[in-house]
Amino acid sequence: MLMKLIMKHSKPYIGWICAVLVLQLLTTIATLYLPSLNARIIDKGVTLGDVDFIWSTGRVMLAVAFVQVLTAVAAVYFGAKTAMAIGRDLRREVFSSVTKFSAQDVNKFGAATLITRGTNDVQQVQMLVLMGLNFMVSAPIMCIGGVIMALREDPGLSWLVWVSVPVLFVVVGILVFFLMPLFREMQERIDAINGVLREQITGLRVVRAFVREKHETERFEDANQKLTRVGVRVGNLFVLMFPLIGMILHIATAAVLWFGGHRVDAGLVQVGALTAFLQYLLQILMAVMMGTFMAMMIPRAMVCADRIGEVLDTTPSMVDPDTDSGTTPVDGTVAFNNVSFGYEGAESHVLSNISFTARPGQTTAIIGSTGAGKTTLLNLIPRLYEASEGAITIGGVPVSELSRAQLSSLVAAVPQRPYLFSGTVASNLRFGATDATEDELWDALTIAQAKDFVSEREGGLESTVSQGGTNVSGGQRQRLCIARAIAARPSIYLFDDSFSALDVATDARLRAALQEPTKDATVIIVAQRVSTITEADQIIVLDDGQVSAVGTHSELLESSATYQEIVQSQLSAQEAA
Prior knowledge:
By secondary structure, the chain is α/β, with parallel strands linked by helices. It has helices at residues 2-10, 14-46, 51-99, 103-109, 111-135, 138-153, 158-202, 204-209, 213-265, 271-312, 374-380, 404-410, 425-429, 438-447, 451-456, 474-487, 504-514, 553-559, 561-570, 573-576, and strands at residues 334-341, 351-358, 363-368, 389-394, 397-398, 411-414, 423-424, 464-465, 492-496, 522-526, 538-543, 546-551. The strands form three sheets. A six-stranded mixed sheet has the order 6-9-10-3-11-12, sandwiched between helices. A four-stranded antiparallel sheet has the order 2-1-4-5, with helices on one face. Helix 17 links the parallel strand 9 (492-496) and strand 10 (522-526). Helix 2 (14-46) packs antiparallel against helix 3 (51-99) and helix 6 runs antiparallel to helix 10 (271-312). The two termini are 67 Å apart.
């Protein structure tokens, strides 16, 4: 999966990659050539006292070193540029894949792990590409070239190369073998700590309200300690790796000086050749060190690539149909025909055999006890979830045959938990109506009973809204979400208990103002309070995921025991009448 990802996303940047490879090749050749020039200066210049030879060869060394510096800098520049571009493309592709997921797909992975896979995991692959472009040419060529050049200088010391290099490879191989499972566990621990942290930040008010700071701190501490323990185990291997490599380097250096010194004393090799041999041996071992750095990154990058691949290879459970099919609903009529739905892994269906029709110009209310499936039913209409059985149609067309763009233009939903995005009031209202004018936005705010407090804010429509709308009250946030739905002017309005944060007077004014913009639209309301739906054209009573009764308020008071229980729990007998 790692190579598949890198190869796929490297194709657009093949020119940059070729430039890096050529530059790395030139850098390596220059690096290999310098010790040989240095040996010639010592053996022919210094030993014989030939100053002209020293200056002429020295100038060549300076030129080679200058070329080495230039090519090395250029190679790192193009390598970094390529790696960052591949990382950008990977993040874009992960994000694009996640945006195509249904709510079921997102729940299967979990928000925390999707965030980690799109950020930390991509970064690990990106860093491997950067290190690979910097070392994958220079390391093997320097290793092989260093062996050739070292043997050229003094074949008698070649056994030191054949001993030290394999020992290094064996040490690195063993450590990498132990690192692989630890890196996989580390990424899972990062997922876990992200999940806990995200949950605690989102639910901070609840934590404080119930004075659960100590408990949540312990939860975070537990996740933190687990990540720390894995990190320490990885660190212990790294701590072991570098002293071992350093020890091999120093032993090899000492061996060259010891055995080479005897060979110099015996007249078998010159001092300059011995110096060059030592430099080549160090270059060989440095090349292995570069390979070690790569080896340290490859296991973690492989784990991350597999996790990224899981996201990219996941086929969305709800595929967007062909947008060119020409299928267009005739109106905003919503019809459920024997619809059943169950969440993945659930023992039974949340909704069973749901059938009803909501027509334009009418208000359909859905009421029932907590857990009856009201919100789930509403989420099936814009196809946030796919019905397990039966069919849902809009204007006679099954929702499965409508593209997301078509559904977005037809349906505007105000969720149970109103959410605003960071930006301005105007940018939030234009979320579903990008071309809306300021007059249309103010009109939507007026209907939603939000004009007064928005006009009082500094900047009005351009006043700042923080992420989640945390800088406005719950009621204001709810009204802004209602205004966002109104600004879209859809054929179908879905209100999921969207008036719960409003006082009775504001609720009444808002409902009266809604009558004009929604007179030709289909309005479906999920409600908890009976008082808010008494004027609905039809009320659907849900009980344990099934339609218990359908009718008007007065009809249900006479025919539905479930509805009577709900009414009696909220209103007095006089108010109910």
